[in-house]
Design brief:
Blueprint (H helix, E strand, L loop, with lengths): L1 H15 L9 E16 L5 E19 L2 E18 L3 E18 L4 E22 L4 E23 L4 E9 L10 E8 L3 H9 L13 E4 L2 E10 L2 E10 L2 E7 L2 E6 L2 E7 L4 E15 L5 E18 L5 E19 L3 E17 L6 E10 L4 E6 L1
Antiparallel strand pairs: 1-2, 1-8, 1-19, 2-3, 3-4, 4-5, 5-6, 6-7, 7-8, 9-12, 9-20, 10-11, 11-14, 12-13, 13-15, 14-15, 15-16, 16-17, 17-18, 18-19, 18-20
Helix pairs in contact: 1-2
Length: about 375
């Protein structure tokens, strides 16, 4: 009896990931971004500017045959900028897009690669109104553009389990195919096949040890870049550094407390030499919501940073400082016994930036972001 059960389990494991691209399965992915910026100053005439921005994209595909998928993508964006004074300005930019595509998938186990294409169209509208308070003259301008074009796609998917996958894709409107950029994102699968239902019933959840009380985590992101340029026999160069080391401690099972130290530094050499530095600290808490290897999480972060600027041989000057907070949520995957890979998919943030001048004027920043193209971070647990 035990031998038969073991044979059935091995058989189902061998067919689990093959079921990802069978008829009856479908996938969803999407991206939602909402940002609002308001600037206000206390100059002699004063000024106020508001700039809300909204972006939305939804992708859906269904497998009609083994490894053949038919999909639909809908997108839209809206941007508005309003200057209340001293020169009233109202700008609106709207865009809508729709595309239909077909993909063919190849591969077994957790990996799939695909190629396909389709046809898509977009409609853009730009509208601007400028009012001159001295002459009461209103200037209006409106521009409408549209585009319809075929496109090709290639990419790959790594399925973490029967529901979630990591996708890497690129799209081109040029044939033969020309690479223009890669996009990474999350894919959520719906539907189920008979073999998947059997394996899910037969396999208990996997409990990882990384998120147990008493364990420490360390992680960091580092980006170094630079450029050189020669213009009219004058040489220019720039170096940039972005880093964010972090350390955390599980005070209880699935509950992490930690702190990150974000740092940015840039230096420009030329006729005018400048150096810019931003240093901050960001304590955070995070709780994981299940005991499986793939587990959702929610968290909160407080942020504070100070920005300094120096030009030529003048002393360094603190220009502004920013304080705020963020609520976030996402997915974590426990790799082996010592790593946690995380992807933030939802962020709700707010902050206040204050200028270091006599007026102490500044601006409020708020933002909501939902994305299936998150930045992936990895922590080491010991």
């Amino acid at each position: 009896m035990k031998t038969a059960t073991l044979f059935l389990l091995v058989f189902l494991l061998a067919h689990l990931t093959r079921a990802q691209t069978e008829p009856g399965r479908a996938f969803w992915s999407g991206n939602l971004q909402l940002n609002t910026t308001q600037l206000a100053g206390d100059y002699p005439n004063g000024y106020t500017r508001r700039s809300p921005q909204l972006g939305l994209a939804i992708n859906h595909g269904a497998f009609l045959q083994n490894n053949w998928m038919l999909g639909l993508s809908v997108s839209g964006s809206y941007y508005k900028q309003i200057n209340a004074n001293p020169l009233p300005l109202d700008q609106r930019y709207q865009r809508g897009g729709l595309s239909v595509f077909v993909r063919k998938y190849w591969g077994n186990n957790h990996w799939r690669i695909y190629a396909g294409g389709g046809i898509g169209g977009s409609l853009d509208q730009f509208r601007q109104e400028v009012s001159d308070p001295t002459t009461s003259l209103l200037t209006e301008n409106e521009t409408n553009t549209y585009q319809i074009a075929p496109f090709t796609q290639i990419g790959g998917v790594y399925f973490l389990n029967s529901r979630w996958g990591l996708e890497l894709t690129t799209t081109s409107t040029v044939f033969p195919f020309t690479f223009s950029g890669l996009t990474a994102g999350l894919v959520y699968m719906t539907g189920a096949t008979e073999s998947e239902r059997r394996i899910l019933d037969a396999t208990p959840p996997t409990v990882g040890s990384q998120a147990r009380a008493g364990r420490f985590t360390v992680g960091a992101s580092v980006i170094i870049s630079g450029r050189t340029e020669s213009l009219n026999n004058r040489d220019y160069s720039a170096q940039n550094l972005m880093a964010a080391p972090a350390v955390g401690f599980f005070v209880a099972n699935n509950f992490l407390v930690g702190i990150s130290v974000p740092i940015t530094w840039s230096k420009n050499d030329g006729p005018d030499k400048t150096a810019e530095t931003t240093l901050g600290f960001a304590p955070y808490v995070r709780t994981y919501l299940s005991n499986t290897r793939l587990r959702p999480f929610v968290g909160a972060t407080f942020t504070y940073s100070a920005y300094r600027f120096q030009q030529n041989d003048f002393p360094s000057e603190e220009v502004n400082h920013t304080a705020g907070g963020m609520l976030n949520g996402g997915l974590a995957y426990l790799l082996g016994k010592n790593f946690i890979a995380e992807a933030n998919v939802l962020n709700l943030s707010f902050s206040k930036q204050t200028q270091n001048n006599d007026l102490k004027n500044g601006l409020w920043l708020q933002g909501v972001q939902f994305t299936t193209s998150p930045a992936i971070s990895v922590q080491y647990v010991f």
